[in-house]
Amino acid sequence: MSVDITVLPALGDNYAYLVSSGNTAFAVDPSDERVVRRALEERGLRLDAVLLTHHHSDHTGGAQPLNRSTGCSVIGPRDRRLRGIDRALADNETCEVAGVPITALLVPGHTRSHLAFHLTTEQAVFTGDTMFLSGCGRLFEGTAEQMWRSLRRLGDLDPATRVYCGHEYTEENCRFACAVEPGNVLFGERLRAVGEMRADGRPSVPGTIAVEHQANVFLRASSPEAFARLRAAKDRF
Ligand SMILES: [Zn+2]
Asked: Exposed, middle or buried, 145 (CB in 10 Å: 0-12/13-18/19+)?
């Protein structure tokens, strides 16, 4: 059965996602219950589960309300700060939701227990606040070396893998990339293309791992030290 991934803008610049197969679905990082419920109703879908990449409330806000209203299960990292988790996934652990096989990848850096969800049969990955398109999350709990390794781990996925991240920060990230490498023609082209998308109100997601290898200065950093310098510069940008 074909699998559809719907992008659900929420809370300003967050992205929640609805993944459906047949008449069942799961949501990733359902920040806003109403946004997810509306999408379910419009499509006549039943919610099997919500998947949470990390404990920040702008990703988890809709999880408990959806659990109460639909009876869906809640799946996420093993972290005491996440309440109401029915199934905690460890690194490399797999599960199947709505008939879709999922592998959890532990990618610390933004938070220490952050997971990415790899849909192995769909060539898609949900990266939360670890990898953004042309960027990465802030280092709230992890070290630069952890985040550098986490990005490289995501970068090792098949280049055709589509990247669904947690926020629409792409244009700002492209602007930073152009400031880091002013002569990079590809960075300039990408900034223009993303600017046009955003001006039209279109989301920049999904990206692909292949494009990230070309356009993400954080993924391209050759060492943890180089990554740390870039991350510090971006924090001040
Ligand atoms: Zn976060």
From this structure: middle
Whether 58 is catalytic is yes
Residue 114 annotated among the catalytic residues of the structure:
no
Ligand 1 geometric centre to CA of 162 (Å): 20
Q: Which of 55, 110, 114, 118 is labelled catalytic?
A: 110
Residue-wise pLDDT for 107-128, tens only, equals 999 999 999 999 999 999 999 9
- Which residue in 29, 32, 48, 129 is the catalytic one? 129
Query: Residue 103 and residue 36: Cα distance in Å, rounded?
Result: 23
- CA-wise closest residue to 130 among 102, 94, 166: 166
Is residue 187 a contact partner of residue 178, using CB atoms and an 8 Å limit? Answer: yes
> For the chain, first and last CA: distance in Å?
45
Is 56 in the active site?
yes
CA of 129 from ligand 1 middle (Å) equals 5
* pLDDT tens-digit series, residues 154-172: 999 999 999 999 999 999 9
CA distance 109 to 147: 4
Spatial distance between the Cα atoms of 154 and 162, rounded to a whole number of angstroms: 11
